Batch of 4 targets.
Target 1
Amino acid sequence: MIPYAFTRRETGWSLERARALLGEMRGRRSCRAFSPEPVPRELIELAVEIAHTAPSGANRKPWRFVAIDDPAIKREIRLAAEAEERENYERRFPGEWTEALEPLGTGPEKPFLEIAPWLVVMLRVDVEVVAGRTRKNYYPMESFGIMSGFFLMACHQLGLATLTHTPSPMNFLRGICRRPANEKPTLLIPVGYPAADCVVPDIPKKPLYEALQWNRP
Ligand code: IYR
């Protein structure tokens, strides 16, 4: 054990930072129309490194990242994702789901998978072989969720737009990325700048009082 190098802040400082951060995070939107403008690799590496600082069950960090800017791989991913999504929208989705998606304007075409300069594939690792022994990771779902939240927030803070995309099923990504069978493709996150004419749905956000309870009613 070592001492925790924690910086204690004044409450005024914290409040100011919290309000500024809330303002910035309120401005984050899922982006479905990207500009092809390149993003330096170092920026992606830093965002991934920030995500990788996330806490995880027993510090196992049950995730892998594959960062892709190779146009040939992006094209392969787009074609495979669109094939799955076409099945979803035309056959697999129940009516209720397509209704819920209607106001978001989503559909089976995913041009952003080729246009965004980077695709970051995140894979969840529930079980892995370490030093010849198979071991189970702890709380992989929770850990993965925390990690991906760190990533989305980091990207927004760095001035990058993202989309949490989950083509379903997304096992095709394992083959395309040449990852082993114990790694489960879980999120496919395009990262870049919004296209100049990017629009987002004008939808209300659930008010905080519907989500937050203080103590007991
Ligand atoms: N994965 C599908 C459907 C979809 C699901 C949710 I939840 C969204 O917020 C948006 C879309 C698709 O990407 O089209």
Target 2
Amino acid sequence: MNPTGEGGSVRLDHFYDKLSSLAYGGDYNPEQWGPETHAEDMELMREAGVNLVTLGIFAWATTEPTPGAYDFTWLDAHMDRLAAAGVAVCLATMTASPPPWLARLHPETLPVMEDGTRLHPGSRQHWCPSSPVYRRYAVRLTERLATRYAHHPALALWHIGNEYGCHISRHCHCEVSAAAFRTWLRERYGTVDALNEAWSTTFWSQRYSTWEEIHTPRAAPSFRNPAQRADYWRFSSDELLAAYLAEKEVVSRITPHIPVTTNFVPIAKTLDLFRWAPHLDVISYDSYPDPHDPDAAQRTAFSYDVMRGLRDGQPWLLLEQAPSAVNWRPHNGRKPPGRMRLDTWQAVAHGADAALFFQWRQSRGGAEKFHSAMVPHAGRETRVFREVTELGAELAAHPALLRSTPARAEAALLLDWPAWWALETDAHPSRVDYLDGALAYHKALYDASVPCDVVPLDGNLSAYRLLLVPHLYAVSQEAAARLTEYVRDGGTLVMSYFSGITDEHDRVHLGGYPGPFRELLGLTVEEFDPRADGTWAEEIRLEGAEQVVAYDWGGPAVTRHAYGDGTAWYVGLDPDPKTMRELLDRVRAEAGVGPAAEGLPDGVRVRTRVTEAGERIRVRLDHRDGSVAVERAAPAVPRAAPGALRR
Ligand code: GAL
């Protein structure tokens, strides 16, 4: 899965060699400040136990103030100062926000919305992902940076771009993007006829006669072609990946010994992260739970489980979180005392090897001046900085956690971006939200203290006793066969409604829903019948499955089907959280999947990491009072391999 192979792990050694305990620090933006502040920064970083900063993320305009005229003197000074202070640097390629001169010289690099509006500079990320001009300038700067700092003692890790797809997710509809989309489609389909077939273009007279007629799905009078839209999402993710890879190619060539990452945004529809993950040496993630959200802990746990799953359980880096409030929600509650610590330990418990913040020092001006930072406007004599300092010392006291392996779960949830994209196109029987579905299934395990991994369709499914499959709406015959095989070989699978409906081109699997899963599930869905209040319902005909739960108005709603050596459950509605919990408790009991620890009170979660020496370290998070305990755990009780327990 990892094209970086062995080299990737050697490169990672370079990163880990610079750390003696979990990475701790934040985005450091010294270009916003003067020399006196810089001196104080070093003092406060020492006090806080900072050992890693991300540097230069928005420093393109400072470093290349006019085209081709580079000024690295300021950065040299910071790199040297940080190295002297023992702080490693995750150095950004600075390409997330081009300087205004790029738009002046090349307005064609600016992204265009689906209605034709061109976006302008003045915030950030104002670049067309397909623009060869943007890429040329970005690569040129990356080359300079990589050459200059290749052997700098502070350089630990490359930080390519920043949060790809955060602001320009449904990215660009300019002519350059349209041409790139056509090239991408040619590679996928070969001929216009094959595309017509895949996109079902005979419907509504959309049949194309040449490639030139095909565009990105721009604003149109009614529902746009769903296959075109799903392909556009695929293309968008791939195109941003290509922009990332253009810079990665440079740093890999000039500094083959330095590992590479980029920070992913909070779980979003934007990028197919399973396609991205092989191209990062280590996964990085930015997490911004809302302190006002009562479900924040579970939602956050889910996103951390996704990050851990992207590279099959490899530890990942929490590259950004807020020490207290953010400033981009309508109401930005602070993190109360202790919450930053709890949130940080939650990330570590779920496999993070780093806890970094946005940002080190709170900005004086600009759009994020009210976003909290490790050093607040009021300086060191503050509650936030005191907690930052205490947390730095606490993390440093657990060096064995660094690079320890998060324990593998017995249950997994299947996540699939292409199915997500196709599911959320228009004109369906009812609105079905993919992420809500995934979160609801994850919650039933989380509430029962059952660890859950996240896997892709082509992942290592047989490692799990239980596989949850929310809304796998679009699925190829081959992928469906993998799931069937998983159950036949003894796995327990729970599939939610509106799965297996269309193929990878959003064409319905004929012969009764859910085509490729009918035999596995032992049923046929005759008709969808969502209720006026939006509740999902459908008419299910049993063909071997047994009814477990009925709809209020009668007819099977939840079914169970013994298949091969395993069991396939089907859930034809959105159970309320209590019913969902009861259902999954029963499924788990049958599948032999237990909680992380017996008898945990509500609100208490534990996760285990295993050190290289085989020591088990347990992190106990108490979400009721915010307390955290990190303790040695007893050796694991040997358990039979999943297959051995199967009938
Ligand atoms: C992230 C971004 C940071 C900062 C932060 C504020 O999405 O990468 O640069 O804007 O949000 O919450």
Target 3
Amino acid sequence: MKRRNFIIALLAVLLVIPIAVSAGPIQLTVAEIHPKDYPTTQGLFQFAELVKQRSGGKILIDVKYGGQLGKGEKKVVEQVQFGALDMARISVSPMTEFVPALEAFGLPYIWKSQESMWKVLNGEIGKRLLKAVEKYRFYGLNYYEAGARSFYNAKRQIKTVENLEGLKIRVQKSQLMLDLVNTMGANATPIAFGEVYDAISKGVIDGAENNWPSYESTGHYEVAKYYTLDTHTRVPEITVASRISFDKKLTKDQMALVKKAALDTQNYVIKKWNERVEASKKKVMASGKNIITELTPAAREGFVKAVQPLYDKYGEKHKAIIKELRAAQ
Ligand code: GTR
């Protein structure tokens, strides 16, 4: 090769290499506490698939499920907030520690039904609160279904709210949940989700509260046989992204693509969720060991009355949105 040609070839290689490197796919990671077959995890796989297809393989999302990136959601969200992690799918409850406006969604007996909740989440209020997280260095990507939460424990059957008195009940790391469970007469103990099974089986706590799929998938039903369907909250899930990492890694168009794909998986998760609730019920019932308690109308009234002091504490702060939520359903 002539000297001149050699220099041209060398320059071409030097110019092309950096282009080739920067043209590689953008890698994003999302943390999920649940196992592979859980509805929200399935939703994230679908999200990753849509993003891959729509970006022509330029944006790839790695779904780290099963709590691989942390057993407690609050710590995981902290990583998202300071940009060490791109995204996390978590419950709105621990998210209220970062974005207090979201507390309204976690108030007891605030939602009439699954349908009315989705009407609000997909409407103006839901969109506004998804946007509200931006002030705290997040992007809100979507909401997922999480059913209704109810109490379970290893000690005794709960037929009335008074029966909760003195039980040591695990709660998520959320002041609202702590106050709620204490208001109902139990002793609330915040523990990371992944540590609850051991804590119940060792008698460190008496029980916890969660929806059917979580009661079943975690195996909590094996160690806490009394499950009372008091459905005190219907707090949705949320997927949040790190503003630091998204602003660095994605263009405006790419960000819009990712956000749209996340929203497009919501209905898929609702469908998966409803199927899973039935499957979880079946599995728990089949064990033959669990005592499932439905509340009588009078007992339900007792539960609703018992949470009123919580509205005294949080109601003023969220007065406008509570009014809006009630009117919108
Ligand atoms: C589940 C929820 C999880 C986690 C868990 C908990 O229902 O899907 O994200 O918040 O509850 O109680 O910690």
Target 4
Amino acid sequence: MKKIALVTGATSGIGKSTAIMLAGCGFNLIIAGRRKERLDELKSQLEIKYKSEALPLCFDIRSRDEVCKAVENLPRQWKNIDLLVNNAGLAVGLNHIQDGLFDDWERMIDTNICGLLYITRCIAPLMIEKKQGHIINICSVAGKDVYEKGNIYCATKHAVDALSKAMRIDMLKYNIKVTNVCPGAVETEFSIVRFKNNLNQAKATYAGMTPLTGDDIANVIKFVINLPPHVCINDIVVTPTSQANAIIINRD
Ligand code: NDP
Ligand code: 8X3
């Protein structure tokens, strides 16, 4: 029987690459996001190219009700989830704290912290029941350092870093692995979202460097999930070769 993975934020970037990688590794996939057409397109790709079964779940992860209902209403066989990839997340805006917009702050806190908590709260009991599972939280180098104008985004990712540690302790006696993955600069739709569709600003984020791709992070996740049952990678930081940490990048 194929294993089942649930990937949040599967409509784009790291989440989409991860879903495709997992299908290639023989998983059936629950793919989550708000953009239904993209989920449907990905479902076809996973089914035709990889012969995986795929179930799209369309919800806004900031809504506790939508998340809980989506998980509750899963067909019984789809509740047998082996791997949860908590990937949905975003940065909105890049401002000094005194200039920040409350709406931007709330979007980041509600998505990156509350959303991750809601889905984890719904899926963890299903893993506990079978005393087996793996939760991978996509954190960031912004969860390890803070940078100018990164304030709230960095705070949400520091929260993810702390939650990964906390979950590992709470899940320990149930044989559930928890891995915190901290990417540096990955060229996805991330900067387009952060700069509110200003494509020039988004492009400038990666100027003079070779950023990571979603596939690079999916490959790291592939390594993490293919280790023997007694081995758990707790925390992994992966940056482009030209990036030392969240602050220092060597540009041409
Ligand atoms: P993308 O913008 O390409 O993808 C973000 C994904 O999150 C989309 O699939 C989006 O789906 C989903 N998402 C956002 N808000 C919501 C919401 N309210 N409800 C449900 N889904 C939501 O960015 P990345 O792939 O780069 O980002 C993925 C993760 O990686 C994020 O947690 C990000 O913080 C983290 N990260 C990114 C880095 C980078 O440089 N790119 C570096 C380090 C970490 P939809 O819009 O369809 O709902
Ligand atoms: C995304 C990477 O450095 O823009 O988490 O915060 S960074």
